[in-house]
Design goal:
By secondary structure, this protein is α/β, with parallel strands linked by helices. Helix content is 42%, strand content 21%. The protein is built from ten helices and 13 strands. It has a six-stranded parallel sheet, with helices on both faces. Strands 2-1-3-4-5 form a five-stranded parallel sheet, with helices on both faces. Strand 11 (196-200), helix 9 (207-215) and strand 12 form a beta-alpha-beta unit. The protein is elongated and about 65 Å long.
């Protein structure tokens, strides 16, 4: 049973909201409902949820506006929107804003239940850096924020561990005598879909390698000393995109450098 996973369903259609809640509840998930964006925000402030599933078109405040309010208050909370209108300006806006995905009504119940089951899988971050003190310090910070962490000072050990359940890699671009670009190429050859966030303290020296890495699908580059909130934001962004893939949402690569 998945009683620890809590879902908030938001829909101004009371019958639809309660029917969907009953289906999800029967599968062992904790469920609450709200019939307006205002009530949804009140419940999010007062309780703990693992996901919000909201209709887009509601009176007064749309699901897109609700998502923006949630993102401002709780940016790590996954939000999935649903709509009966496939070609709609609000659908495009919500995708551009970073919602997990927009599902068409009637919902594919098996798909959404499969998505819910993935919410409690430990989000494992692999830190690859030849400085063990940096690995430990950053690892401790990420663990405090609720992430699972595995650390590698030897990139060969990482390459031998990619079959494990690693969701995102933080890859230093200068690993002793090893160039992170070469490691990235080997990672992408073994698993082309795994997100890789580059990290370096040598902005100018590694500039050419960074641009080449971004061109072969590295997600972005962060510079030391790391800004922890920017790092958490980026990891969460990647995690939400990976969740979206379970529902058929194509990745939205940003391929940008972050200061």
């Amino acid at each position: 049973m998945n009683t620890e996973v809590r879902i908030l369903i938001v829909d101004d259609n009371l019958r639809m909201a309660e029917t969907l809640a009953d289906v999800v509840r029967v599968k062992g998930y904790g469920v609450d409902t709200a019939h307006s964006a205002e009530k949804a925000l009140e419940k999010i402030e007062a309780g703990q949820f693992d996901c919000v599933l909201s209709d887009i078109k509601m009176p007064d405040v749309s699901g897109v506006e609700l998502y923006r309010a949630i993102k401002e208050k709780k940016p790590d909370l996954p939000v999935v929107l649903m709509t009966a209108y496939s070609d709609d300006k609000l659908v495009r806006e919500s995708i551009e804003d970073g919602v997990i995905t927009v599902l068409p009504k009637p919902l594919d119940i098996n798909a959404i239940l499969g998505f819910f089951s993935s919410l409690r899988q430990k989000h494992l971050v692999a830190i690859v850096d030849d400085d063990p003190d940096f690995c430990k310090t950053l690892g401790d910070i990420l663990k405090e924020r609720g992430f699972g962490v595995t650390q590698f000072t030897d990139p060969c050990e990482l390459l031998n561990s990619l079959d494990e359940d690693i969701h995102v890699i933080l890859l230093d671009m200068k690993l002793g005598e090893t160039n992170g670009l070469d490691v990235l190429k080997k990672i992408k050859k073994k698993d082309p879909h795994i997100p890789v966030i580059l990290v370096t303290g040598y902005r100018e020296e590694m500039a050419e390698s960074i641009q080449k890495a971004l061109s072969i699908d590295a997600y972005t580059c962060l510079y030391k000393p790391l800004q922890i909130e920017a790092l958490i934001e980026t990891i969460t962004e990647v995690y939400h995109q990976e969740l979206g893939r379970t529902l058929g949402q194509p990745p939205r690569k940003k391929n940008r450098n972050k200061g």
